[in-house]
């Protein structure tokens, strides 16, 4: 059985640059600071459903 994946979207431009495995134990959406190749800088990326 394969794991479901969710995308991480950039908070500034909205592009979905990264994907991670879904964690059902996580109560709130994950927020991490990652590099966005479209903005050209490090921004907050939020988990999308």
UniProtKB/TrEMBL annotation:
It comes from the Bacteria. Keywords: Ribonucleoprotein, Ribosomal protein. GO terms for biological process: translation. Gene3D superfamilies: Ribosomal protein L33. InterPro entries: Ribosomal_bL33, Ribosomal_bL33_sf, Ribosomal_zn-bd. The keyword Ribosomal protein applies. The keyword Hydrolase does not apply. GO terms for cellular component: cytoplasm; ribonucleoprotein complex; ribosome. GO terms for molecular function: structural constituent of ribosome. Belongs to the bacterial ribosomal protein bL33 family. This is Large ribosomal subunit protein bL33. The gene is rpmG.
